[in-house]
């Protein structure tokens, strides 16, 4: 959760500085005879260790260093407490005071801690980016009335994306049903539907999360930039190698990552005939922890078409519409971007086409074994033809430039240049008169701008 700066109660729950990191250091008779005290002691040590591991993770992948200082009482620093659920203010305190990161017991997970620390270091939520309306649609009508402020876009003057594109797989992105009025309502939908189960993960920092942090804080760490491939960049922690997107390895990201726990993956050259790939052991079940990475490459002048077939099963959280294990397809021009993740039950029906001669397919099973997947791929001519655009969807607002509309088109054959979807702002005329129903002030049309553009009246 992102919160604005406000007053926080000074009665903070701090780490017990009498405790040593070794539980065997307990020597008082009262400690030995009090099981409840023992339980609190070990739980505090566990929480401290998980926080330290999350900070160590940020340290290992950036130029940032974190030093624990239990003696500090004031000044600019990060203080971990549990006064307000999972929450942090954004960025350095303007008055040089301490930066509070609240971690309630349910927040003591590596991904959640990394998320809140990112806020403290200056990261907004991904869906708060000024350009978010090109990628997702916020369903204001489904959001809990007290939580709508969490979905406002930030002012462009307050955001520096450092040229890193919108990332559906960012650890800073809300899940599909975050802050919904009812559990089954979507509050965020992706314009490209196959990205819907990608958003909201809290397992690990995405490649672009790390890339953005390094661009902001570590751009001058290394003396020279290496000729990294596949969207990689010079690693500020080890300047003699590249930091590579998932699926690639080697000094310059020139190699496909080998399979883990199975012999699978690699570079596969596809032709106009179908080539098949599958999860380890398919149609038998794969094992938990196995990983495979494929780079599918078409001949010059062609692109790759990919299609799932047969039975499909990868573990997901249906309630949150979120992949835990998945098959990820990266088909854009930048393999640093998180791709479309497929999971749950039932064979995906989308025919996926690459933007270039290459396509990356990642199989990741972090949590459970299962049936897995089978798919086929082939090369198609790069010069294709589009079908006609569909009619524009209804505008999401009646006036005041608050609304957007969308239309789509499909590629009739081959590879079609351009985008399969367009969005635009609609109903730009100012709102006039009195609203017959309750007024809503949402998104960029709230506050002062509503006086200029008119308040949005929900029709």
UniProtKB/TrEMBL annotation:
Start and end residues of each stretch annotated as Disordered: 1-30
Cofactor field: Zn(2+)
SS bond partners: 63-218
Ranges of Basic and acidic residues composition bias in the record: 1-10, 18-30
Positions contributing to Zn(2+) binding: 115, 119, 125
Domain Peptidase M12A intervals: 17-219
SUPFAM superfamilies: Metalloproteases ('zincins'), catalytic domain (SSF55486), Spermadhesin, CUB domain (SSF49854), TSP-1 type 1 repeat (SSF82895)
Protein name (database record): Zinc metalloproteinase
GO MF, one annotated term: metalloendopeptidase activity
One BP term from GO: proteolysis
Active site positions: 116
